[in-house]
Amino acid sequence: MSYSEAVTVSKSSVPILAVVILAVIFGFGLFLVGYDQGHLFSIIQGAEAFDDLFIHELTHDMRHAAGFPCH
Ligand SMILES: [Zn+2]
Predict the structure, then answer these.
(1) Where are the domains positioned within the chain?
(2) Span 38-65, average pLDDT
(3) 49 within 8 A of 41, measured Cβ to Cβ
(4) 64 CA → ligand 1 middle, Å
(5) How far is the CA of 8 from the centre of ligand 1 (A)?
(6) From the CA of 66, how far away is ligand 1's center (Å)?
(7) Cα–chain-centroid distance for residue 58?
(8) Dihedral angle computed from the Cα positions of residues 48, 50, 51 and 55, in that order, rounded to the nearest 10 degrees
(9) In the 8-state DSSP scheme, what is residue 70?
(10) pTM more than 0.70
(11) Model confidence over 4-42: pLDDT tens digits?
(12) Which residues lie closer than 8 Å to 50 by C-beta, 6 or more apart?
């Protein structure tokens, strides 16, 4: 008596491009929440952005909850 056996090998992996894009988004988010002191808005708004600190005030509680020092 003979029998046949089918073996299915599926190779799936995460595309490198997706990992790179997610790493860039993560890095941008980390900068935005943890380190931005008006740098991002200063591109458009100029030096006044460093006094207004819109992003800093927006993410202030999240920044403290994540353990980033700010004051
Ligand atoms: Zn603070």
Answers:
(1) 16-65
(2) 90
(3) yes
(4) 6
(5) 55
(6) 11
(7) 16
(8) 110
(9) -
(10) no
(11) 888 888 888 889 999 999 999 999 999 988 888 889 899
(12) 37, 38, 39, 42
Closest of 54, 58, 25, 26 to residue 39, by C-alpha: 54
Q: How far is the CA of 63 from the centre of ligand 1 (A)?
A: 7
Locate all alpha helices (DSSP H) within 1-71, ordered by sequence. 16-34, 39-45, 49-52, 54-58, 60-65
Among 24, 46, 20, 38, smallest CA distance to 59 is for: 38
Phi and psi of 29, rounded to 5°?
Answer: -65, -40
Supply 54's token pair: 């819109």
For 45, the 3-state DSSP assignment is helix
